[in-house]
Amino acid sequence: MPLIGRYLSFIKFEHTVFALPFALISLLAATDGRPPLGVLGWVLVAMVGARSAAMAFNRLADRHLDAANPRTADRHLPAGTVSAWGAGVLTILGAGLLVLAAGMLNPLCLKLSPVALAVVLGYSYLKRVSAAAHLGLGLGLAIAPVGAWLAATGSFAPFPLWLAAGVMFWVAGFDTIYGIQDVDFDRKAGLHSLASRLGVARALQLSRVFHVLAVAGVAGAFRRAEALGPVSLAGVAIMAGLLAWEQAIVQGGDMRRIDKAFFTINSWVGMVLLGVVAVDLYLI
Fold first, then answer.
1. 208 contacts 173 by C-beta, under 8 angstroms
2. Is the dihedral of CA 271, 272, 275, 276 positive or negative?
3. pTM: predicted TM-score of the whole model, two decimal places
4. Is the pLDDT of residue 1 over 80?
5. In a domain? residue 92
6. Is the predicted pLDDT of residue 2 greater than 80, yes or no?
């Protein structure tokens, strides 16, 4: 595999579809659908930087655990297709991109960039000490809509905070499901997840609660945006349907279709919401 392709695979670049749509939704809502091209460009740079740094650092921090886990032993670092040195360089470059983009946007974004880095990098160690790691991952992605709003306005507001809450609980819900695959390994390795702490059945129950809260958070955000109307709220109903489908797929701890539940369905959630917001802003 070519070098660039190898590193894009290493950081799971395709998983950008999880956080990016919510950053764009927040940016569009903050600017009534007319974001300045410069702001849009630097928001995208910040997203790429933060995402790359977070994923590279996570793989670097977990390389020995990944090597010991049969499910993850073929990842790039344990398999030797990416070096620890290369992962470290990518982490530094990604963090630098985030700070650079924040500085180009406004002083508040620059001041908060170390906080953002602390959250997205610190998640990698949270599962060593707390089963709240799922919420920690959610918080890392929830930064995206808040950061995009701050990039456009330079101040906080209810809309991005409600949207961030929705993102946090959405991610925590599907990460709880994903963690079921490693329940036995996590217990042996002393790692914390809701499944390893509470058992699969109770973890899935909490995942459902998280997803109900996610829908409530996104609905609360859209109701507080003057530029958004009934089409966007219809999108929230679609989101609820997708998450109900996801929960149905894994009901009873069925792990055979976790990849479909984790990636396929969740990749649609943000794109559907971004689509309905675009319809509300540009066509209604």
1. yes
2. negative
3. 0.95
4. no
5. yes
6. no
Residue 157 has pLDDT above 90, yes or no: yes
265 within domain boundaries: yes
**In terms of residue numbers, what domain contains 86?**
3-279
22 token code pair: 């919510």
Mean pLDDT of the chain: 94
Contacts of 109 (CB under 8 A, 6+ apart): 46, 101, 102, 103, 147, 150, 151, 154
CATH of the domain at 24: 1.10.357.140
What is the tens place of the pLDDT at every residue in 54-111? 999 999 999 999 999 999 999 999 999 999 999 999 999 999 999 999 999 999 999 9
Q: Indicate the pLDDT class of residue 31, thresholds 50, 70 and 90.
A: very high
* Residue labelled with tokens 């209810």: 158
**CA gyration radius for the chain?**
19
- Number of structural domains in the chain: 1
Rounded to whole angstroms, the Cα distance separating 78 from 15 reads 21
Number of residues assigned to the chain: 284
What letter represents residue 183's amino acid?
V
Please give the span between the terminal C-alpha atoms of the chain, in angstroms, as a whole number.
Answer: 45
Residue 31 lies in a domain: yes
Instruction: Judge whether 284 lies within some domain.
Output: no
On whether the CB atoms of residues 59 and 80 are closer than 8 A, the answer is no
For residue 58, give both structure tokens.
């996570």
Which of 209, 208, 217, 206 lies closest to 166 in space, CA to CA?
217
Q: How far apart are CA 21 and CA 228, in angstroms?
A: 16
Tell me what pLDDT residue 247 has: 93
Q: Report CA-CA distances (Å) from 267 to 35, 55, 72, 125, 243.
A: 24, 17, 22, 25, 11
| Tens-place pLDDT, residues 177-186 | 999 999 999 9
